[in-house]
Amino acid sequence: MLKKIIISLTTCIATIPGICQPESRLLGNWEGRIKVGAGVRVVFHFVKDSLGNISATTDSPDQGVRNIPCSNVKIEGDSIFLQVPSANGSYSGLITDSAVIIGKLKQGLSFDLNLKKVDKVTALNRPQNPQPPFPYITEDIEYDNPGKTLHYGATITVPPGKGPFPAVLLITGSGPQNRDEEIMEHRPFAVLADYLTKKGIVVLRVDDRSVGKTTGDFSKATTADFAIDAGNSLDFLKSRPEVDQKKIGLIGHSEGGMIAPMLAAKRKDIDFIILLAGPGEKLSKLMEDQNVALYRSAGINEKAIQSFRPFFQKMVTLINESKDVSVFDKKLEYTLNEWRKGTEPAYVLATTRIYNDSSQHIFIETVNNTLFTPWFKYFLQFDPQVYLSQLRCKVLAVNGEKDLQVASKSNLAAIKIALQKAGTKNYDIIEIPQLNHLFQTCKTCTVMEYGQLEETISPTALNLVGDWIDKNIK
Fold first, then answer.
1. 22-118 carries CATH number 2.40.128.120
2. pTM of the full structure
3. Residue 456's CB: how many other CB atoms inside 10 A?
4. CA angle, 80 then 31 then 131, to 5°
5. How far apart are CA 101 and CA 113, in angstroms?
6. Sheet holding 272-276, edge to edge
7. What is the pLDDT of residues 441-463, one digit of tens each?
8. What is the CATH number of domain 137-282+382-472?
9. What are the start and end residues of each CATH 2.40.128.120 domain in the chain?
10. For residue range 276-286, what is the model confidence (pLDDT) as tens digits?
């Protein structure tokens, strides 16, 4: 449920002749940091094409955002002005003789951003990423669904020695994810698979549709389709001779924590499920709470946040009720206009980045492209209680106390209510202090901090999962 916050910048073209041309000094990599939370890095990559024109891309490495195309650029003397229309952002600065650009980034708000020319962008340190040689068998595999309409790419890791072993299928969170659930150069599923396999458990992790070796169209799929994918992968896992058929489980993170109960509610061959930041509340309520938490973490005025709530609720209603995007577009525009009439312009800007008709058009277009989709419409109407209350298998539900995307206390409480109605009597619900949505030990605990932290998964969270499996499954 992770929603990336794109910090957007641009590129430039210069035509001033002579050896001291600004364009000559711009070629290469420029790195800077804006002061948001613990700071967010921004990088420009400037190159010259065969016609002598300067072009560039921009990255926000700490947020896992790369290769944003840039356009609409100007240079006047040593001054540059840069834009990325897709994110409604701009950057202006002054090129100095010391290979530094002193400037400001504007994207609704204005931030100081000074850039320094570097030979190589600072690498992110990820000490937990597993490195070979591994003390277990690791195999990249491919397989089809029964009708051979989908082809899956995956990695299976198998402990050494004589099996059969307990086994788990890892199910990724929202958005197109590879088998390692890679985000901001963290590979949480690779770390989790490494830890569990060393403890004597077979682990299967799989690329999402249209990612890596897996086929299919992610953009047209819903959570229900991803549940079918998980079922196909579970069937493959069961076919492996190393697997103990009576000790097979699912571990789902975020949206994967929705999918695991969907699958376990209708199958009798699942012994246990582990929900990592899985939802318990209706998703429309969860998304509203998520927006509020993210705004607060970004320092948005509380009155602005509360003014946004009713608008968000109306927008959700429109998404659920509208069958045609053109009808939704008109209704959203009307709703926005009415909301803007009765809301302080500063509050509108802070929560939507709308400050004029042009920026409102960009907002509506973004909503159409990202929210009015088959996946999001299904997602908003989803109620986890329906499936959680049907479970008969063993359940571990774990959330980080500082999770801004799936609020820990309210969702764990909702999961507990559902499991009390269910047939299972073997369940544990645990909140781990000071962990975020990715189960990292956080400091500022904002979404922007995910990429800044070196820790991929807290050892506390890993050990909790491992100890629970030792106690309840082995």
1. yes
2. 0.85
3. 24
4. 155
5. 8
6. 137-144, 151-158, 202-206, 165-171, 243-253, 272-276, 394-400, 427-432
7. 999 999 888 988 999 999 999 99
8. 3.40.50.1820
9. 22-118
10. 999 999 999 99
